[in-house]
Write a structure and sequence with these properties.
This protein is of the alpha+beta class. It is built from 10 helices and 8 strands.
């Protein structure tokens, strides 16, 4: 399971400022339920442009809830100017750090804040719009979001971009475009990503099975579940859930957040996990 700090767990189990602000001065809504993460941030601003109240509603994992909760604490009492300067890394640092694969949750918080401030400055008449072409259609991630993440956090690999924005974490069709963006934004002092050594089919199958047995199945068995490796076609791994997991409504989340994440960590970042039809 993810190695969360005590502060992350506290904000997840006891989230601050959950709710709705009726007639909020600024509203920022990012993500979507279809993508697995969605956040709505509402702020109240006084005559001196100080954020006097902030509430949120979110759908997502523990990191998404914790990051949203932390953000509301960080911005209350701050001027809009100071709040706008908050970065996703600031949110992660406030929580004592986030797993690298969960940094996109802090990015979502920063984007919601930017959208809420923009909504306030346009007197509620403007909502966040896609400002550039969509690169990752699986998660609706635009070129602007990816380039900003690369520039702000000095990302160097596709895997890091996926961790921070989710782009490339679905079908993988956008990976060539992400690589182009990384190359175009690379500086002379950044070393190119070292390519992963090619594995034979037998080596890949062995590593996948070992990772499932060591990293995944023990976690599922704690809750009465299990899974079976059905097939491997290229970088696509087909599995079938068993026991409690086969009846669980959150099986899709488990497949992405645990099974796929572990295989990408220990086998190859290009791994895509699908459930048997």
């Amino acid at each position: 399971m993810w190695d969360y700090t005590g502060k992350v767990l506290d904000h997840f189990r006891n989230p601050r400022n959950v709710g709705v602000i009726e007639h909020a001065d600024g509203v920022g809504q990012v993500g979507s339920l279809a993508c697995g993460d969605a956040l709505k941030l509402m702020i109240t601003v006084d005559a001196d442009e100080i954020i006097v109240d902030a509430k949120f509603q979110t759908f997502g994992c523990a990191s998404a809830i914790a990051a949203s909760s932390a953000l509301t604490e960080m911005i209350q009492g701050k001027s809009l100017k100071d709040a706008a300067a908050i970065t996703n890394q600031d949110i992660a640092d406030y929580l004592g750090g986030l797993p690298e694969q969960k940094m996109h949750c802090s990015v979502m918080g920063r984007e919601a804040l930017e959208a809420a401030i923009e909504n306030y400055r346009t007197d509620g008449s403007k909502k966040r719009e896609l400002e550039s072409k969509v690169i990752c259609r699986c998660f609706g991630v635009t070129e602007d979001v990816i380039t900003k993440a690369i520039a702000d956090t000095h990302l160097q690999t596709v895997e890091q971009v996926t961790n921070h924005t989710k782009a490339g974490g679905g079908c993988g069709g956008c990976i060539p475009e992400i690589e182009k963006l990384l190359k175009s934004l690379a500086t002379d002092d950044v070393q190119p990503d070292t390519p992963h050594p090619q594995m034979t089919i037998v080596e890949k199958l062995k590593r996948i099975q070992e990772t499932l047995d060591r990293e995944v199945r023990p976690l599922l068995r704690k809750d009465g579940g299990d899974l079976e490796l059905i097939d491997v076609v290229g970088n696509t791994v087909v599995v079938s859930f068993r026991g409690a997991c086969a009846r669980c409504k959150t099986a899709d989340i488990t497949m992405k957040e645990i099974v796929e994440a572990k295989l990408r960590e220990f086998v190859a970042p290009e791994i895509d996990v699908k459930e048997e039809n």
